[in-house]
Write a structure and sequence with these properties.
The protein is an alpha/beta fold. It is 40% helix and 21% strand. It folds into 2 domains: 189 residues, Isopropylmalate Dehydrogenase, CATH 3.40.718; 138 residues, Isopropylmalate Dehydrogenase (3-Layer(aba) Sandwich). Strands 2-1-3-12-11-4-5-10-8-9 form a 10-stranded mixed β-sheet, sandwiched between helices. 45% of the residues are buried. The structure holds nicotinamide-adenine-dinucleotide (NAD). The site of nicotinamide-adenine-dinucleotide has 21 residues, from loops.
Amino acid sequence: MNYNIALLKGDGIGPEIVSSAVKVLSAVGEKYSHTFNFTEYDIGGAALDKCGVPLPDETVEGCLKSDSVLLGAVGGPKWDTLPGNMRPEKALLGIRSAMGLFTNLRPAKLYPALKSECPLREDIVKDGFDIMIVRELTGGIYFGERGMREGKYGEEAYDTECYSRMEIERIVRVAFESARKRNKKLTSIDKANVLDTSRLWRKIVHEISAEYPDVELEDMLVDNAAMQLVRNPSRFDVIVTTNMFGDILSDEASQITGSIGMLPSASLCGGTRGLYEPIHGSAPDIAGQNIANPIATILSAAMMLLYSFDLKEESQCIVDAVDKVLSCGYRTKDLANGGEYLSTSEMTDKIIGML
Ligand code: NAD
């Protein structure tokens, strides 16, 4: 098969880690007889420097005509003083909205070889954990009516949370499908004891669950979920929740894996095209030194193979290669605890060697 992938390398370590993922994809292509064609487009600070805007039209058009998109990261101190709509980070919201990406998938997995990096007690994580957070990405309070006004006590501000049946149904279906492909357990997180949006969310989740009798469903209030994530993370398989709850809980989940350089993500639109990126930023403090951990971006490429191209074996082959390299004790600087470490390119070559 032939696949066209748009590359948005971005800023800081973005070019280094995307190049690593491209090498891994090319090696997988060779092994399984697929052709991956890569086309680079500018985004973020690099685009600002070249074209004067963080998200040029050509980049949006390129992404929309590609089969999928791989993004590094954007931003850095050079552009930090620009006004909000000219900041590199503005390009992220722009490309998500242009591609209609309403689903954010964020796996949070504790690798057995990295248990010592986890900030939780050993007895809590003795069985490890492997959670998939499905977060709604284009609705809720981040996109609702907002404003400033004069209230009873003077100046006040308000933001409103609004969810339509359509928005809830489509994200909940993605979550049930995801649970069906994993351990068939779905936790829906809301605040139904207080919020009307949550009560509608819960009602629709239960309606849709009738279509997935093979998936075990539980409801959980968001405050309890925040607690359970650090008390017993292995109880979760797939989590589905709203934009704001997902934003907060997915950051909490990423922290308990102990390694920001390891975590991939996928943003999907319901069709096959998606945007795949590591959850970390552009790490300007280590950019250009060939010491960044490329694994989050390489695992993002593995998610692309699974979710956009339905290449299960090829995707698993990358995940297994990463597992093997870590089990053999190879580490990048961020994981080495002051010990010996591999450069970005050496780690990439080790992973390719294990494919
Ligand atoms: P960051 O994630 O870039 O870095 C936080 C810390 O983690 C740094 O010490 C960094 O060196 C380290 N780190 C991150 N990724 C690493 C990797 N792959 N390997 C080894 N170490 C790694 O967060 P920050 O410092 O808050 O932000 C830096 C810039 O990135 C800012 O301009 C911010 O706006 C931007 N940002 C972009 C995105 C994105 O593009 N999606 C996300 C978050 C932050």
